[in-house]
Write a structure and sequence with these properties.
homodimer; mainly alpha; Arc Repressor Mutant, subunit A; Four Helix Bundle (Hemerythrin (Met), subunit A); elongated; DNA-binding
Amino acid sequence: MKQDRHDGARATVTAIKDLILAEHLKPGDPMPTEAELVDRLGVSRSSVREAVRTLVALDILEVRHGTGTFVGQLSLRPLVEGMVFRGVLLPGDDLSVLREVVEVRRGLDLSLAPRVVERLSGAETDDLRDCVEQMKALAAQHTTYPVQDRQFHLNLAERLGNALYGQLVAAFWDIHTTVAPRLGVVGQRDLDVTAAAHGAMLDAAVSGDLEAYRAAVEAHYDPILRVLDERHPAPVS
Amino acid sequence: MKQDRHDGARATVTAIKDLILAEHLKPGDPMPTEAELVDRLGVSRSSVREAVRTLVALDILEVRHGTGTFVGQLSLRPLVEGMVFRGVLLPGDDLSVLREVVEVRRGLDLSLAPRVVERLSGAETDDLRDCVEQMKALAAQHTTYPVQDRQFHLNLAERLGNALYGQLVAAFWDIHTTVAPRLGVVGQRDLDVTAAAHGAMLDAAVSGDLEAYRAAVEAHYDPILRVLDERHPAPVS
DNA sequence: CAAAATTTGTGCGTATGTATA
DNA sequence: GTATACATACGCACAAATTTT
């Protein structure tokens, strides 16, 4: 080892990670107690606790008060937390961070288009159909539908055989919907347009029309991008 | 408030975040000292330190020993660290995590294709040309070229007017190149193919040929995906 | 160059809150 | 309800790194 006695912080973090790998622990498995980690790693309680804090922040560990420490779910929650803070800290004159997030969301959906169409053409789509119907009904009452919106994109991503894609879609959905209200971007007026866009995406996908699906995705993100344009001209067309 | 005296951990984290927002601090700005945070937040030094650890893990804070604490760069480093650990912890029988990462990289590049072609057609591309030439030269000597590879994708993303896209591309490049060696995925035999694919991407972009660019992106990721296929059949075509 | 001041890093003891048996 | 095990919080003392005097 390069550092036996010193540099406890970083060394302890990697030591705990190595321990997880060496014991072949999986998400949800129990970790040794703090006291046992102190013994096995040869560092103080403070160092162990601070290292555990670091790993909890990354969702590599999970601590349940009074119960114990467990291997975390390795989710993208750290990405969401960091990007949300970035969004509110660096709004920019043109809400640039929020714009970039929306553009990434559109890019993710567009890059998934071929697979979505392939998977959904002629398939069972009751869950997605339900989401769209609820959205349209709520839009008619001038009510927002965040739950249905998120569920729609999640159900879509779940059918692709790539869990990471689904988690990225969900993560940027979370970032978007958390940052937008804090910056005063509401966009309540386009509820009908957005609900209809979801329906168009679904219709295009089940009928196997790739280009129509791509167009529907564009229409889905058009309202929010126009709201951002009203505040400041887009840096790109 | 539900927790006035207790729950110092989470409360202190948000208190520090609120402090950054209230003072309008930007990345790189100095933070109050630990002692001052103890006074202002009314919690113990241990709590402050653990909260700071959490924020350092998210790159919201940065600590320099003996100097002080500063606002962090809010980068995607936490995403990289988490995904790398996920990649080595959950390799799966089919190296599924690595496959998903590569597929996301391809998706990002494909979704950027229209913009790249628009921006590069007839533009100055000396830096990108240099990268490709160096790659080809190194490939001829059967040498890997990770630096040139990363630089190519970064230079590409930098021209798009969306910093987040560039950081995502760089982050998943880092994840890919960190995880692949640990799982024994080398792919040294396809150095020529990959170098040529970069050249083809550049040629297609400057000539404004969107479809040729898309094809070159596919060719770029084809070698690594074939290597993954050899170990286990792909879950999707 | 050297000493002092400042700031973060580490270790340890103790008291308290919380979940489980 | 009680006991036990565990995590959480606090405070102090000292070590290490950096900047300033």
